[in-house]
Design goal:
The complex is a heterodimer of chains A (about 180) and B (about 240). Chain A has seven helices and seven strands, in the order βααβββαβαααββα. Chain A is α/β, with parallel strands linked by helices. Classes of the chains: A alpha/beta (about 180), B alpha+beta (about 240). Chains A and B meet through α4 of A and α3 of B.
């Protein structure tokens, strides 16, 4: 295990499509398994983000206080942060709510809609508070590699990971850094 | 036709007298990125992507609106110019609401392509997420107008005026507050001058103008007709006199 790269993947404010695309690496995942140790991921049962992580792929935008706290922890404990997919890189569709007042959104969804009103104050205590605006990751912490795409296709992901595993900064061609 | 000689990136090249710097560059294999430029439409120098450095001039000049002169020494791809071009694209990304994943023009968008070609994989500027844009105009029977995606290149305005001869589209306001307007600022569907030709939609480099009914990534655009019409007119191909 000693020489394996400690890889983590994280799911913030996104749809998990980037993780689906990652799983679409198919048989290349087997090659990858020999070279990495997956230390934290939505597909691994690890509760706390570990220390000494080499590379992390972070999917999703910064939408709430939990996203922000976790991202700060990740930056402290990780060598290379990859902004993984359009939500992480641009804010993408979660960012559509930036044009709206957050209290109006919550009221519209949870108070004014049909059905019974969900419990308010108790729920607010245990749920992370929404940030007034949705931000891309680099608005909060320095990012080392940007991997745009909605989602980034598997070839794009593999090219980037292969370079990172070899200790190089990925040099992606123009067709591999398109948004959307 | 007289020919002039100028220096592009240290290399002596020739170009026809009266050519713009952009034409001189492209005729000599130097590729400059552009967004507002479209062959067949009058150049306006709006997007500033084709800025170049001319020896002896303090300011950078847009190649599309600058006439090439005999003896000019021009640099087109210095580190500073490339940095400025990236910055321009990043500013465009942050100015309105460009959300590629839900855009009709995903796949045929020139802004998206220029970003990829110039290595813009994120914007360092904070997104403005403007809230004061007019709502999407879907009153026209065939076309839609979404101000969220507009980069103010004015290609639609010029095509409507110079190619179709209708001048239905124009622009109001200045700077970040500028907006494409129809006739004297009314809903597109009420326009009495629009011929419904669709030239504006075809020349729009982004998803601002689109065919109604198209959804994410469904738009296809064809800008080739502009050059074809311009050339035919110059040769008087369709002249009845």
């Amino acid at each position: 295990m000693a020489n394996k790269v400690r890889l983590a993947t994280v799911w913030l404010g996104g749809c998990s499509g980037c993780h689906m695309s990652f799983l679409d690496l198919d048989e290349k995942l087997i090659d990858l398994a020999d070279k990495i140790e997956l230390v934290y991921s939505p597909i691994a049962d690890v509760k706390e983000y570990p220390h000494d992580v080499d590379v992390v792929l972070i999917e999703g935008a910064l939408c709430n206080t939990e996203n922000l706290e976790l991202l700060m922890q990740i930056r402290e404990r990780t060598r290379i942060l990859v902004s993984f997919g359009d939500c992480a890189v641009t804010g993408n569709t979660p960012q559509l709510r930036n044009k709206l007042n957050i209290d109006d959104v919550l009221t519209k969804v949870y108070q004014a809609g049909p059905g019974s009103i969900p419990k308010g104050p108790e729920a607010v205590d245990i749920l992370p508070v929404l940030l007034p605006k949705v931000y891309p990751l680099h608005a909060a912490v320095p990012i080392d590699v940007y991997l745009p795409g909605c989602p980034p296709d598997p070839d794009r992901i593999y090219t980037a990971i292969a370079a990172l595993l070899a200790g190089e900064k990925p040099q992606l061609p123009a067709e591999a850094i398109t948004f959307g | 036709m007289s020919v002039i000689t100028l220096t592009l990136n240290g290399q002596e090249v020739s170009a026809p007298a009266g050519a713009t710097l952009l034409e001189a560059c492209r005729q000599n294999g130097v590729d400059l990125p552009t967004l507002c430029h479209l062959e067949g439409l009058t150049p306006v120098g709006a997007c500033r992507l084709c800025l170049v450095k001319v020896e002896g001039q303090r300011r950078l000049v847009p190649a599309c609106t600058t006439e090439a002169q005999d003896g000019m020494k021009v640099e087109t791809h210095t580190e500073q110019l490339m940095e400025y071009r990236k910055m321009i694209l990043e500013l465009l990304l942050s100015e309105r609401n460009h959300i590629c994943s839900v855009c009709v023009a995903n796949g045929c968008c020139e802004l998206r392509s220029r970003c990829a070609e110039l290595g813009v994989d994120h914007t360092r500027f904070e997104y403005r997420c403007p809230t004061d844009l007019p709502s999407i105009d879907l009153t026209h029977e065939r076309n839609g107008l979404d101000h969220n995606r507009c980069i103010s290149c004015t290609r639609c305005i010029r095509a409507c005026d110079q190619i179709e001869g209708a001048h239905t589209l124009d622009m109001e306001g200045r700077g970040a507050a500028n907006r494409i307007i129809v006739d004297m600022h009314q809903n597109w569907g009420k326009s009495s001058t629009c011929t419904k030709c669709g030239k504006c939609v075809n020349v729009c480099p982004t998803g601002t103008l689109f065919w109604r009914g198209s959804t994410v990534a469904e738009m296809q655009k064809d800008v080739g007709f502009v050059h074809w019409i311009k050339e035919g007119r110059e040769k008087k191909q369709w002249s009845v006199i």
